[in-house]
Amino acid sequence: MNKKESRHQLIRSLVLEHTIQTQQELQELLAQNGISVTQSTLSRDIKDLNLIKVNEVDYSYYAIYSTSQSKWAKRLSLYMDDALLLLRPVQHTVILKSLPGLAESFGSILDKLNIPEIVATICGDDTCLIICETNEDAKRCFEQLKSYTPPHFFKK
Known about the structure:
156 residues, alpha+beta, 4-stranded antiparallel beta sheet, two-stranded antiparallel sheet, elongated
């Protein structure tokens, strides 16, 4: 697990265990656990983790917005079912070929899913290049993406 993944895991735990009202409170809790982050990094983490502010009568606090992830997972499954033509790991990347005009949509959905192995997606009209750090990351990413494909997709 890399530093970002570890930090994200800790943030999720802290949000579930504490009533955190501000980014500064979260930053202080992270520091108490040996993690020092800048405000801008913490803001990105909050966005990446789909944290939301829940408003109560007298105060507000951070919570995990869990339905967002499942919405994107469902959307990816639908796209895989309707428009996927090829999905294959190649060295430290995964190649995704789609029907014309849909590769950018795949890339956008993959970006929203925050799959840890994905460093970036570069998409054209019908091809999405999914870039991973290592060959092993690409294989893990491929296996995860494979779970969204229709059951018949990889059967010959």
